[in-house]
Structure formats: structure tokens, C-alpha cells
Amino acid sequence: MMPIESLSQLDLLIRMMVLGQLLLLGGLVLREPASRLRLLLLACGLSVAGLVMLTAPIPDEQYGLLRNVLLILTDAFAFIFWLLICHLFEDDFNPGKWPTPVKWLLGLFGLVYLYALGIQAGGSILHDLIHAISLGLVLHAAYIAWRGFKADLLDTRRRARVMVVLGITLYSTILVIFEFADERYRNAAVFGLFNATFLLLITTIAVARTFRLQYEPGKPAAEIAATERQEIARPQPGDSQPTLVRHQSEWSPADARLSKALDSFIAECGYHQHGLTISGLASQLNCPEHRLRRLINQTRGYRNFNSMLNDLRVADARERLVDPAYDDKPILSIALDLGYDSIGPFNRAFKAKTEQTPSEFRGDIQNRR
């Protein structure tokens, strides 16, 4: 077996390589215009860099005050990771619309977080509480990725969801659990080397992927960017109809037939079916599921099947709530007629589209008559 000193030296070498990869990734991200996604990626990179340095085979006393800073960066990973997963997989995710009390509570938690790690250096029960919250956030991120898998219309995002559930989430959970283990196991040289090696693998894959997207041979960067925009295009808030990404002249005969069948299905209000899924619709239209996913995304502009259903159903709901003939019909009955299984999902979908509940919308209409 390799001596502990040799393991430590190899561990340090690998960690230096990881830091180099992170610097390279940071440079690639900073080349593009700022966005919420790029800021989250940079924050993730800083957090991982803190983890790489903090868990290196170096005595804690040699860090000095730097250890507190690294501790803050390291333990922030679960929070940043959760925000990143929400941003990537939840199309309606918008922290700016969170209620004011929630924002105040988060601000208070931020102060406690800085105090527990920056002042107390993790030497109190507050640190254990932060670890428990971190574990909950990581597991919830896995749930978010799993929950939206079936309805996701983007193949790249579907693969990313699987990677999150099976890879990153499992690894992050193991790290958090290790924080509760005995120090002799948590600081074992073999575990540290494994940790560094795994991070090197992940960062190498990330760098290779980034370079391939930006500098793929035979495919100009502008064309790659256009392809990515086409794939992830979606309706903007306030749009009455989703954006058509591909013109009809670009459709294949099979896509044209499928689009016509989908139009007929929508015209007949087939989307009022209860429990309708993308796989169920593909069966009814007698087409491969992957083809239907791609067609809805590229010709209707949706990234999520449930978003399309909600838009269609809410549009019908608004027509019925405006119609005096439906004044005496309970809102629950309208929701059930439109394909919802309960009032809760209907209320959330309606408010997300109109910024009013169905009851508020109906009341405003009736007051204007």
C-alpha cells in the first residue's frame, strides 16, 4: 500500500489540477455576457474551489483566517447547487417573486450562516444545523430533477436530470453525510484522494464539454449558439402564443403530418383529458415519443409538456370565466372539466399565467359588467 506521505503528495497534485480546471472554466464562462446561469456557475466553481482547498491534507492551523473563508465557500455549495438546479429545470423559477417574509427569513439565515462559519469557524451546533439544511436541499434538488423528467421536452435537459439524480446528488449527499462522521474517517487520506480524483474527473468533463460547444470542429460558434437558442426557446411572460421556432418550410413530411395531427388534437380539446402525459399523447397520435417531444419544442416553443397543457387549459378557463353562462358553475367544476384533478394545481397554473386566482379573475369580470 502507498505510504500516507505519498498519498498526500498525490492528493495535493490532483487538487492543484482541479483548481487549474476551475480557473479555465471560470475564464470560459466570463467570456460570455453575464446572466443568472453564468453567475450561478461561477458561484458553484468558487464553492468547489473552497472545498478543494479546505479538504486538502494540510493541518487546519496552517490556514489561519483563510480557513473561515474557505468554510463559508465550501458549505455554500448545497445552497448554490439547489438554486442552479431550480434555474435549469424549473421554467417558472423566479426568486424575485418570492414573498417578502421569505426574503427576510433568508436574509436572517444568511447572517446566522456568516456568524456560524465566519466568526465561530464551524465550532457550534449551528454548523450541524447548516449541514442538515444542506442535506435537505441536495435531496430536494434530486426530487426537482426527477419530478420533471417525464414532462421535459428537451433531450439535453432529460439527460442532465438523470446525471443530477444518479451522479452529482449522490456525491454531494455522501460529502454532507461524511461531515457527521468521526473525524478520523472524514479526514482519511484515502477518502481525500478519492474526493480529489472525482472532482478532477468532473471538472475535466466540464471543460471538454464547454470547449466542444464553443469550438466544435466544422461547426462555427455562431451556428452552435443558434442551435442552442432554438432548442431552449420558450414563450416569454406576457406572450399570448408560444413562439414558433421552426418555419413550416423547414419541416420534414413526417413532422408536417405529426404537426397536423397535434393541431387536430388541440382543436378537439383533447388536452382536457385527465392524467394526460407526453407518452400518452404520443400513443394517441401513433408516433414515437421522442419525435413528439422535439416537434412540440421546436414548433411550439415549449420546454415542458405541462407548460403547454396549462397554457391551453388556462386559456379555456378564462373564456369560461368571462362567459355569463358559467357564472353559477363552481370553479372546481370548471377545473375538473379542463383536465385538472383538484383545485390546487388549477389555481397555481391560472395565477402564474394571469397573476390572479380564478376567483379574483371572475370577480373582476363580474364587477365590470
UniProtKB/TrEMBL annotation:
The keyword DNA-binding appears for this protein: yes
InterPro entries in the cross-refs: Homeodomain-like_sf, HTH_AraC, HTH_AraC-typ_CS
**GO-annotated molecular function:** DNA-binding transcription factor activity; sequence-specific DNA binding
**Presence of keyword Nucleotide-binding:** no
Q: What are the boundaries of the signal sequence?
A: none
- One GO biological process from the UniProt record? positive regulation of metabolic process
Which Gene3D superfamilies is this protein grouped with? Homeodomain-like
Which Pfam families has this protein been placed in? HTH_18
Entry's transmembrane regions: 12-30, 37-58, 70-89, 101-123, 129-149, 161-181, 187-208
- HTH araC/xylS-type domain residues are 260-364
Q: Which SMART domains does the protein's record reference?
A: HTH_ARAC (SM00342)
Which top-level group of life is the source organism from? Bacteria
Q: Which UniProt keywords apply?
A: DNA-binding, Membrane, Transcription, Transcription regulation, Transmembrane, Transmembrane helix
Name-wise, this protein is Transcriptional regulator
Species? Pseudohongiella nitratireducens
